[in-house]
Amino acid sequence: MTKAENFEAASGLKRRSVLKGGAALGLAGVAGSGLVGRALAAEPHPLAGQKIEMNILGIAGWGPSSLGVAMSPLFAEYVKAKYDYDVTFQFQEAPFADLFQKAATSLATKSQEFNIIISDSQWLGALAQPGWILNLNEIIKANPNLQLEWYSKAVVDTYMTYPDGSDQIWGLPQEGDVEALFVRKDWLEDPAERAAFEAKHGKPMPQTWEDFAELTMDEFELLADFFTRPDKQVWGFAQQYSRVYDFATCAFNNFLWSRGGRTWDATTGQVEGILNTPENAASLAEYKRWLKYCPPGATNIGIGEGVDVFVQGKVFSEIQWAAVGPAMIPEELKGKVLVVPPPKHGTGADAKRIMSMGGQPWVVNAFNDDAHMRVAIDFMNWWYLPETALEFAKRGGNPCDKATLSRPDFDDINPWNRTFKYMLEDGRSQDFWHDPKYSEMLAIQQEGYSAFVTDQATDPQAVMDYIACAQQQILLDSGTSKIEPSAMCAGTSL
What we know:
Structural class: alpha/beta
Family: Belongs to the bacterial solute-binding protein 1 family.
CATH superfamily of the largest domain: Periplasmic binding protein-like II
Organism: Rhodobacter ferrooxidans
Radius of gyration: 24 Å
Helix content: 40-55%
Shape: globular
Strand content: 5-15%
Pfam families: SBP_bac_1 (PF01547)
Number of strands: 8
Low-confidence stretches: 1-42
Distance between the termini: 59 Å
Subcellular location: Periplasm
CATH class of the largest domain: Alpha Beta
InterPro entries: Bact_solute-bd_prot1 (IPR050490), SBP (IPR006059), TAT_signal (IPR006311)
Number of domains: 2
């Protein structure tokens, strides 16, 4: 007998039933915990009486990954009570920069080493194209509890679909994430600081969420400059410039997109002529210019380093991921931090903000045997129950379903929730490539941006040309694009 046949003989579960996963569980979530829920729970589960060990791969040092794992015992209690099977979870992890390789090395061997993976959103193509993760279209059709209304199209585009613009679903949101501006509310409210600012600029400092929502970069620069006091070891601003993983890329895309630029054409795979425009080169120069308001060593600031300088009181403000809100606002800073939308670029009616999407989807190992596949799908059904989503939010996580985010109390659960919801709306945040060659394209980009901000390269146009030409060649070689790099590319370098 095959492994699947042995499982079917032992459990009575047919392979086609696995695709339905926790259909009953999903329906129970819709029906609530009344008579219908009890009736469904009374139906024997094919894993009843069995013990299953599940393995999750997630991001080391990343709070949202840890939250998802920390909540897994609640799932174990739930299925034990409802379906009479026992499940335990093991968690393995790797840093952002290493996690994809760890997952890919295992999945390439068709291993069940990781039953569920917390993937970065940009990896969907690289994991889906070789058939390593489960296509979820049929799973969703069979499970009403997974047929959610998401808060925005950006959620679906970022965490769920590949190819871009298609209806093929490969992931479900584990943690939503957007860029936010964290500012020291206590500094803003200091009467002496407010008086000094108004005396200098002839107008009051912004103070409320609504004030910052309308702020432009030019207006915000007055604040960044005002609080930059090197003699007191205090600076006005911080953002990510690090070459590690995608840190500089996400921070620079905020400038590029908000100032009207694009990175590529996802339909044709064209990069050259889109990324390396003079306008985008000017945006790169502007991104670097803001280093003047950042603390020493700012070109090495990534996520963790950004948390450190903010919590240590070295900076007044920082553009940082909403997902690290719990780390940015520890106990000693509670009530002293305001989390607001990042400033708009431009002036007047033309001013706009388009920031990078962060966050991660759950993806399911396509090589799971029937038992582990069933538990994985049961887990997804449980994760999107209203009570689970609310518990995730109360622990500091960022769910993405419209029902949870539309609760009248959602904005008050965490200090960043109002801004998270605001920036999650369509047109305010977006993701970049889901192409299978994501990591190769990213490496070139990070090399170029890092070289420029650290003065190893001094011409922003040359940097953008170098990146665009290299990425165009990568996409041509992979077959994503039929567009060849132009003759100009033969002479590009950093």
